[in-house]
Inverse folding.
C-alpha cells in the first residue's frame, strides 16, 4: 500500500506496532498530532 501522506511529509518516519497499527513520526508536533488522529481513524476502519 502506498502512503499518500508521504508525498506531503517527506521527513516522515513510520513505526509499526505489534498489533499492526502504524505510528507516523513527523518533525512538526502539530502536524504529527493531526496525522496521528488520521492514522488512528484509518486503523479502526481497516
Amino acid at each position: 500500500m502506498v502512503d499518500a501522506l508521504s508525498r506531503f511529509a517527506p521527513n516522515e518516519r513510520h513505526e509499526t506496532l505489534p498489533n499492526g497499527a502504524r505510528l507516523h513520526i513527523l518533525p512538526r508536533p502539530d502536524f504529527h498530532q493531526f496525522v496521528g488522529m488520521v492514522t488512528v481513524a484509518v486503523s479502526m476502519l481497516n
About this structure: Helices lie at 29-45. The two ends are 13 Å apart (CA to CA). The CA atoms of residues 2 and 14 lie 12 Å apart. The beta strands are 13-16, 22-25.
